[in-house]
Amino acid sequence: MPVAFSFRKAIAGAGLALAAVACQSNSSSSEKTKPAETTGANATYLPAGTWRGVLAAQGQKIPFLFDVETGNNNQPVAVYLRNGEERLKLDEIKTVGDSTTIRLGVFDAALVVRTDGANKLKGAWVKYDAKEPYRVAFTASRGNQALFYDEYDDGTKGIFPINKALSTSTATYKVTFTDGEGKSYPAVGLFKYRNGNLSGSFLTTTGDYRYLAGGIVRGPKGFRMKLSTFDGSHGFLFTADDVKNDGFTELKGHFYSGKSGHETWTATLDPNAKLPDANALTGMKPGQKKLDFKFPSVYEGGSISPSDPKYKGKVVVVQILGSWCPNCMDETNFLAPWYEKNKQRGVEIIGLGYERTADQKVASQKLLKMKQRLNVGYDLAVAGEANKDAASQSLPQIQKVLAFPTTIFLDKKGEVRKIHTGFSGPGTGKYYEQEVAEFNQTIDQLLAE
Questions:
Q1: pTM
Q2: Are residues 327 and 428 in the same domain?
Q3: Does residue 256 fall inside a structural domain?
Q4: What is the pLDDT of residues 97-120, one digit of tens each?
Q5: 6, 174, 408, 425: least CB-packed within 10 angstroms?
Q6: 146: in domain
Q7: Residue 323 domain-assigned?
Q8: Where does the UniProt annotation place the signal sequence (predicted)?
């Protein structure tokens, strides 16, 4: 029923706020074992059509929609996760016995499901690269369905007082999130309500929560906003009540992330709400002008350094990323085709991968899978483990790495000219357009020098 929505995570002295939410990993080890596939004579086939999946975590239901495409003998050939306007194609599907494993794109995770009666599924969402064993119960039913349903149906279902707060145009909110330790950080909320669908975006200084979709339902005392998303790496649920019952000029609610992440949030309608400058959150240490690193390439035996002859006299973009990071996936989906169109201008990109494993070979495999699935033509290196502190230590010329992704611009002399924290992905609408425009402007300026 709902459409799209995104969010970008804030720092502003708040420290690490809900690391499981944005691309701010501090994981240092991997789950070593994966669920064994069952064997048997009867294969499980997923009938074609639209399904409503539900993740059960923290006493909450995190719903999402997905479409199944079948081929010969009605076997599933692709699953498309639907997050508002986004369609994430999943085509690594394997059925053994009564169990079907759907690998979740570039992420080291899967939905492992079985039939549970006609047009129903049950199983688990499994993250293989989590620090601790990570399984979340999953159910699904087939058929066109709303993402959310009214919790309190008093006979006036569907009536909602539309006013200037939520309408077909995007409303901007000043947002404050507060974690379990009482630490708060700012954000900007963007919401649009149209044809019964709620969409929008949360922005923070270190990333966005990508596409969220939802709707307006009845809560215990009035109307309630609900938004959710599932991209394979993250399962999010946002709820908020209409504090004044005036069409959501003020919001108060909860944010649930996967198995255990929980924060509260408040928001006030504010068309002038904005975040600190993403180019001013970190910088080079005093006296430092160049990056000095040499990391192993994802290809065995190779290495990558900004002082390599390949980069001499060129503008170089250094991308700090992880294959586990949805915001990094969004940035890579922009950078990969951009590079193919612009590399002849004298521009190179180096991707520094920080993975959720200390094993260099395993990390290389994860990055190579991302490289293949996202058609990445620029160089990728294994830089270390997925930890902001570790990333900062591996790049000692920088004051601090605050987020995955972080983008560093080097001029033709190899000197750092800009460090951009985070990335506003396509789910953020005009903010994504501004991100792309600023990127191109920076490159044009450096090439003209």
A1: 0.87
A2: yes
A3: yes
A4: 889 999 999 999 999 999 998 899
A5: 174
A6: no
A7: yes
A8: 1-19
Residues 411 and 311 in one domain: yes
Q: 188 or 6, which is more confident?
A: 188
Residue 338 in domain:
yes
Evaluate if residue 34 carries a pLDDT over 50.
no
What's the chain look like in SS3?
Answer: CCCCEECECCCCCCCCCCCCCCCCCCCCCCCCCCCCCCCCCCCCCCCCEEEEEEEEECCEEEEEEEEEEECHHHCEEEEEEEECCEEEEECCEEEECCEEEEECCCCCEEEEEEECCCCEEEEEEEECCCCCCEEEEEEEEECCCCCCCCCCCCCCCCCCCCCCCCCCCCEEEEEEEECCCCCEEEEEEEEEEECCEEEEEEECCCCECCCCEEEEEECCCCEEEEEEEECCCCEEEEEEEECCCCCCCEEEEEEEECCCEEEEEEEEECCCCCCCCCCCCCCECCCCCECCCCEEECCCCCEECCCCHHHCCCEEEEEEECCCCHHHHHHHHHHHHHHHHHHHHCEEEEEEEEECCCCHHHHHHHHHHHHHHCCCCCEEEEEEECCHHHHHHHCCCECCCCCCCEEEEECCCCEEEEEEECCCCHHHCHHHHHHHHHHHHHHHHHHHC
Range of the domain at 319: 295-448
User: 37: pLDDT confidence band, cut at 50, 70 and 90?
Assistant: very low
Average pLDDT, rounded, for the chain: 87
Number of domains the chain is built from? 2
Could you read off the pLDDT of 211-244 as tens digits, one per residue? 999 988 887 778 889 999 999 999 999 999 999 8
Considering the domain architecture, whether residues 328 and 440 belong to the same structural domain is answered as yes
Q: Is residue 234 domain-shared with residue 329, that is, in the same domain?
A: no
**At 390, which CATH number?**
3.40.30.10
Q: Are residues 178 and 245 in the same domain?
A: yes
Amino acid at 156: T
Residues 246 and 340 in one domain: no
Question: pLDDT of 128-158, one tens digit each?
Answer: 998 889 999 999 999 977 888 766 654 444 4
Looking at 204, 234, 269, the residue that finishes a domain is 269
Residue 343: what pLDDT? Answer: 97
Please tell me whether residues 419 and 304 are part of one structural domain: yes
- Assign residue 257 the CATH number of its domain: 2.40.128.120
